[in-house]
């Protein structure tokens, strides 16, 4: 039940989709007993405290929606750690790192009464190197005399300590103001509204039909951008109007250059492919359907997988196939593309134009998947049911639990499962499959990783 019991305001969670207005994330870190849970309750404005004198209680309740002065954000309580655990320093550092990865802003809570401990020093060190804005909350400053103690926390090198009393609410409004102040307009890893035309890399081995397809797609509508006369090695992109939208096909110069595939050019071809992927959001991989899938085709697909880009695989020269061959090919393709069952496929003929128009919705769909964010509450509700129906296998006599999950990023979507123990590879793959079934993601790679909280 701990997974479903998240957030206070269900209406704030929208359907999965890239328009769901990702909220900035504030991660709360700090030693046990410094008052993180109390402070989180204060921030989310919840009356009843979930604070209990049970060690580790915060582990099960870690994400909340908060609103302050009309601004919405997500609060993640990264939980405490067991102070008796061996390798505590490592755990502390890791917790801070997780926070730094996930968050837009980090709220580091220190107990002003106790002062700076070794553990606080370690966290401070990690956070200073994180590049993320850090707010240092000096908690348990219940009265004015205590402010002096708060000042001692300057020693952490994280700027001005913000005195607060989570318990009594003293200065908590001021702290929230400071948090608001540091919230970015655009949460991390998401593009702004003016992202410009979406960027497509058209890939494939020589003679597969890249230029033919580009000609077919672009027609007369093409616009060359970044032309650098005489320097054929510089990428030249083309803006192409398709399906009522403008697309940027990256490095089309490489496609057009006729001297491009000289002997021994494998290395350069792969460099070029990498470069194009680097600059693109989605890859269209062309494969010659009249031939068997070659090493080179699979190598290109591997490069796309490596890059984390969305992918559409287009089987070209379909006009050259007879019925038998088509049937055989479908089977062959399923087998060959077993690593990327999620890639969207299209059968086309660049020469005749047959089904070429089907590429645009596929590219669109892949990009949409790539940018999708699943709301945290929905993700956790889904996983709660999933785990209840199919629990992870017992390991070393213990039943690992998924305590909490979050989509840490989009483009590509990456999920982090916080667990109480090791989840077998097969079980993680099962979860990945089910996440795909539930939330879509056709055409996009997704990543599911776990962070074990012991
Ligand atoms: P966490 O382990 O960091 O989540 O800490 P908790 O929120 O569970 O708080 C630990 C203890 O500190 C509890 O007994 C709280 O009542 C107490 N506490 C939290 N905030 C304050 C505060 O601002 N002032 C005082 N005096 N006690 C506090
Ligand atoms: P690139 O090297 O990948 O840019 O490939 P090209 O576009 O230059 O095409 C190589 C050859 O394949 C040319 O002779 C094209 O006419 C031919 N070709 C491209 N697409 C098709 C197709 O869909 N069907 C057939 N039959 N031939 C094609």
Automatic annotation (TrEMBL):
Family: Belongs to the TRAFAC class TrmE-Era-EngA-EngB-Septin-like GTPase superfamily. EngA (Der) GTPase family.
CDD domains in the cross-refs: EngA1, EngA2
Subunit structure: Associates with the 50S ribosomal subunit.
PROSITE patterns attached to this UniProt entry: G_ENGA
Residues that hold GTP 1 according to the record: 30-37, 77-81, 139-142
Name assigned to this protein: GTPase Der
Task performed by this protein: GTPase that plays an essential role in the late steps of ribosome biogenesis.
Binding residues for GTP 2: 204-211, 251-255, 316-319
Keywords for this protein: GTP-binding, Nucleotide-binding, Repeat, Ribosome biogenesis
Domain of life: Bacteria
Domain EngA-type G: 24-187, 198-371
Spans annotated as Disordered: 1-24
